[in-house]
């Protein structure tokens, strides 16, 4: 895609992952300070926090690397 | 491609509850895909933009889009269910049922599609075999594509009703109108942009279940041991060792059916001639990118079992309840095979992650539907409307027709969804109908590309004979179930095996008729075959490229990994 001014698809993906990273990490941290009554299996892994953080890192990288 | 049996899904109760953050994640996703559609409208002015995305996609974008168009949410749920039911045998549909064909498309067939500058697979048939072949192919493809789109839409809405308790009408209209808006605005460019985004979401939303499941099971070995404990005496973790006899495996299939029916005819037919996926590759910016795109797609396809098959196997190992067939689940109030993926999501995914997982399912559905309607719009406009209804019109007129076709395609799909809701048996018939055209079409296209003696009459009559014979074999078994012993070579063969062998016979009939009729008719002059047939087409040399930029190099790498994986899981 070489059109002048056309924003790369990877930028859109980066922004979406960045937003999701904030939301999922936030939800994971909230569960950490306020544990639910019926936690999911393997809740001790706190998957929300590290998966959200991973999305943040990937989203941040792609947003910056492909910014318009 | 599989779908979740809708009739029986409808009886289950809601499996999952979403938190506000999950709903917010889904809303953000819809906002993003619509935003991309509105943004890309200004870049979609010409027919080449709207129907072929300007033919300027990189190999990566075309390759990921090529795969995403195939990765529907029902594909994810259906094959996770198949993995729970049949074990690792379901992986054949991702490995031998896809990888060789995708590599073949990239290395052997793509040059002819690309150099001929065709807009579509029916368009190639017109160049090679004339109008009758194009019409037969275009009409059947367009008709079946929108019907399949509607069936998938209905099945998806049912899944959302069962999993989340959402109203069926709400799911159908919101998701399909969203697809309609972004495809109408940005055409194939918008569809491809969103498919790449959806591909990333599918992976990030679905892979977590496999990762946490493997941790809980104690790795692969731990999972295999647990399956052996839970289901003693049954082989769920071997790809090939149980295929020596129809009765030694839960699919009731012989290895010849897997290799010749699935690995050869069905797989090559779908991946090399179904315009839904081939259209994505035709948008590549140059021939090297067009050849690389299916190879990149093959690399990712080989990994899809990690997010589709593995959750099914983990379900066998870890779920406390035993999942059953639909009828038994309905009778006992238990859970069916088809619910294995949502059950595994519910097991591991808390707020936020669950929203991401559900978004992955929705993204899968929308990528598949966008693929259907954009391919339908192209085939209708270029292969039916332009040659037969309005031959001379401005480019802007055809773009306008394409936009209207997209809307009509979506509306027909919605109508089909409601039709299926009233007459559920339609699903079985339409899915069977779709398979009628794939195998013979592959026979026609491959002979067209590889055999210069094939004539227009040979191509048309071969395609017609293959299709009619496929329908005839299907009707024969419907009328007399014992006929399966002739079609599938064994009275113990099951539906899956029948599909494999029916495809194989119809392909053989197509090729035989094409060859016989071609020898009975006058050969086409060489001047009419330039750019269309092996031997009359100058294929650009890649000798000047460094090794790591040559498609053949990467195809060999993927092929070697493919063989190693099959041996490891033998």
Task: Walk me through this protein's architecture.
The complex is a heterodimer of chains A (68) and B (570). Chain A is mostly helical. Chain A has helices spanning 9-33, 47-65. In chain A, helix 1 (9-33) packs antiparallel against helix 2 (47-65). Chain B has one domain (6-427): Sodium/glucose cotransporter (Up-down Bundle), CATH 1.20.1730.10. Chain B is 72% helix and 0% strand. Chain B is built from 23 helices and no strands. Chain B has helices at 6-9, 20-40, 47-52, 59-68, 73-86, 99-115, 121-129, 131-164, 168-217, 219-230, 255-273, 275-282, 287-303, 305-318, 326-332, 340-348, 353-388, 395-422, 426-450, 456-479, 484-487, 495-520, 551-568. In chain B, helix 8 runs antiparallel to helix 17 and helix 9 crosses helix 18. Chain B starts with 5 loop residues before the first helix and ends with a helix. Chain A binds chain B through residues 1-3, 6-7, 9, 12-13, 15-17, 19-20, 23-24, 26-28, 30-31, 36, 39-43, 45, 47-48, 51-52, 55, and chain B through 19, 21, 24-25, 28-29, 32, 36, 39, 43, 54, 56-58, 61, 193, 196-197, 200-201, 204, 208, 212, 215-216, 285, 346-353, 355-356.
Fold blueprint:
The complex is a heterodimer of chains A (68) and B (570).
Chain A: H1 9-33, H2 47-65
Chain B: H1 6-9, H2 20-40, H3 47-52, H4 59-68, H5 73-86, H6 99-115, H7 121-129, H8 131-164, H9 168-217, H10 219-230, H11 255-273, H12 275-282, H13 287-303, H14 305-318, H15 326-332, H16 340-348, H17 353-388, H18 395-422, H19 426-450, H20 456-479, H21 484-487, H22 495-520, H23 551-568
